[in-house]
Amino acid sequence: MSLDGARERRVRTGGIELCVAELGDPAQPTVVLVHGYPDSKEVWSEVASRLAERFHVVLYDVRGHGASTAPRPLRGGFTLEKLTDDFLAVVDAVSPDRPVHLVGHDWGSVQSWEFVTVARTEGRIASFTSMSGPSLDHFGHWIKQRVRRPTPRRVGQLLGQGAKSWYVYLLHTPALPELAWRGPLGKRWPGILRRIERVPPGDYPTPSLPTDAAHGAWLYRDNVRSRLSRPRPDAYAHVPVQLITPLGDAFLSERLYDDLARWAPELVRRTLPAKHWIPRTRPDQVAAWITEFVHTNEDGVPVRDTVATGRYAERFGGQLVLVTGAGSGIGRAIAFAFAEAGARVVAVDRDAEGAVRTAEMSRLIGSPDAWAETVDVSDEQAMEKLAEKVAGEYGVVDVLVNNAGIGLSGSFFDTTPEDWKRVLDANLWGVIHGCRLFGRQMAERGQGGHIVNTASAAAYQPSKALPAYSTSKAAVLMLSECLRAELAGQGIGVSAICPGFVNTNITSTAHFAGVDATEENRRRKRAARLYGLRNYPPEKVADAILRAVVRNQAVVPVTPEARGARLMARFAPRALRAVARMEPPL
Ligand code: NAD
C-alpha cells in the first residue's frame, strides 16, 4: 500500500512550505500522523491506508523533510516552538473547527508531546497516541530524579538508556552526520532497516532519505541538550494519551515511561513484541489501537472505563485470540484469561453449547468481542472453512492456542487402531491443522504472532498405561519445537505447554482401552477423584500460557509434577523410566 490517491496541498507557515497529504472522508474525525527521524510522511503509508477506511487521515512532511521546504539557516530552525507553529498551521488548514487526534512516532512523538503539553494547543487536540518518542521534558525530569537519588537500580536505568542513546551523541557532532547520511549510510539505510529492523520493502524509505536525515540532525541539536538540562516543570498532557511501547526497541528503554502517569493523568499503555519501526512492521495492530482509542475519545467515554484491567491488558488488549477446545477445562480458562486482558476471542469447540457459553462469559469478563465456532479440529475441511471464515470476518489471528484434546488410557496391546486414530486425530492432527492454516495466515501477514500448543507432561514422561496419548503429545511437543525454529525469523513465537494433572472434565470423557463400559466408568470416576484431590486449577495453566506468550517461552511445564518430570527427563532419565512402569491415574 502507498499514499497514491492521497490529496496533497501545501501549507505556508513561518517562511516555509509544508507538504500535507489527506486520505479518507473529511467529515469523519481527523487523525494527524507525525513522522520521526530519519523519515518522511511515507513511513505512515501502511497505517494511513488502514485508518482511511474510517477517518479523515492527515500526514505532513516535517519541515526540512520529504517534500516540505527547510528553514534557512538550519540552525535554530527546528525548535519545538517552531514545530508547534507548523502543527497548528496544518490543523488550521485541515480541521479548523474540530480537535484532531494526534499520532506520533519517534521524533514525531517527541514533538507531539510538546504539542499536547503547551497551553496554546488546548482545544485543538482530542487525543494523542505516542510511539517510541518520549517528551524531552519528561526525559529531563527522569534523568534529574535518577541523578539526584542514585539507587543502584536507578543508576542501572540511567546507564541502560545512556547506552541506547549512542546515536544522539553522534548527531550532536558537527558535519559528520550530514556526511555519513549523504554518503555510505544513506545508501545502506534501506538494507539496514530490512535486515535489522525487519522493515518490509515498499514505498519507504523514500529517495529523500539522505536530505531528510541531514536536516533532521537539527531536531536533536536545536532541542535535546537545552530541554534535558532545563525541562519544563509544567509539561502535563491536556488530552488522553495512549502509549504504545515496542518491547524490542533498540533506542528507548521501557523504564523511561515509569513515571508517565504523573504527566499524563489519562493514560493507556500498550506493549507489543516488536522493534522500533512499528508503523512499518505492525501496521494492523497500530491501526487497530489508534482506531479504538479515537472512537473511545470521540464517544466521550473516560479512557479508564473502556480499557481492560487484567494483568496482561497492555500486551493483549484488542488482539485476536483463537482457542480450540475452549468449551471446557483449560481451553475455557485460557479464553477467559485473554478476555480479561481485553483480547477479542474466538472460542472453538466441537461442543457447540460449551463454545457459546465460553464466548458469552468472555464478553462479560472484558472481551470487546467474542465469538463461538463449532468445529471438530481433526476435520481438515471444517478447519479450512473455519480459517477462511475467521480471516474474512474477524481478521488474522494474533495468538492461536491449539488446545483441544482427548484422553486415552490403556496398554499398547489393548489400544486398537481405532483408538490410535481417534487420539492422534484430535491431539495431533488438530494441532497440525491449526498451525498449518492459522500459522500460514500469520506468516503471510508478516506482522508476527504467537502459537501455543497444549502438549502434556506425558510428552516427555513415558508411561506404560498411556502409549497413544503420550505419543500424540510427544509429537505435539516436537512439532512445536520444529515450528518455533521455522517461524523464529518471522517474529512468530511457538510455545508448547505441558500442564501435568489439572482438575478438568478430561477424566470423565477419557477413553480407557481394553475394559468394558462398567470398568471404564469406574476408572473414569477414580481418575476424576484423584484429579479432584490434586485440585490444580485450569486458571493457573491459563496464566502460565499468557506468561509464555509474553516471554516467548519454548516449553512450559506447569504443575510441580510436570516440572519435576521435565528435570528428571534431563538429569535422571533412568528414574523416569522406573516411574513409567507404575500405573498412572489416567
Ligand atoms: P476438557 O475435556 O475439560 O476440555 C477439552 C475440550 O476440548 C472439550 O471442550 C472438548 O469438547 C474439546 N475437544 C476435544 N476434542 C475436540 C475436537 N476434536 N475438536 C474440537 N474440540 C474438541 O480437557 P482439558 O483438561 O481442559 O484438556 C485440554 C487440553 O489439555 C487437552 O489437549 C489435554 O490433552 C491437555 N492436558 C490436560 C491435562 C489435564 O490434566 N487436564 C494434562 C495435560 C494436558
From TrEMBL:
<dbReference type="GO" id="GO:0016491">
    <property type="term" value="F:oxidoreductase activity"/>
</dbReference>
<keyword id="KW-0560">Oxidoreductase</keyword>
<dbReference type="InterPro" id="IPR002347">
    <property type="entry name" value="SDR_fam"/>
</dbReference>
<dbReference type="Pfam" id="PF00106">
    <property type="entry name" value="adh_short"/>
</dbReference>
<dbReference type="InterPro" id="IPR057326">
    <property type="entry name" value="KR_dom"/>
</dbReference>
<dbReference type="InterPro" id="IPR036291">
    <property type="entry name" value="NAD(P)-bd_dom_sf"/>
</dbReference>
<dbReference type="InterPro" id="IPR020904">
    <property type="entry name" value="Sc_DH/Rdtase_CS"/>
</dbReference>
<dbReference type="Pfam" id="PF00561">
    <property type="entry name" value="Abhydrolase_1"/>
</dbReference>
<dbReference type="InterPro" id="IPR000073">
    <property type="entry name" value="AB_hydrolase_1"/>
</dbReference>
<comment type="similarity">
    <text>Belongs to the short-chain dehydrogenases/reductases (SDR) family.</text>
</comment>
<feature type="domain" description="Ketoreductase">
    <location>
        <begin position="319"/>
        <end position="500"/>
    </location>
</feature>
<dbReference type="InterPro" id="IPR029058">
    <property type="entry name" value="AB_hydrolase_fold"/>
</dbReference>
<protein>
    <submittedName>
        <fullName>SDR family oxidoreductase</fullName>
    </submittedName>
</protein>
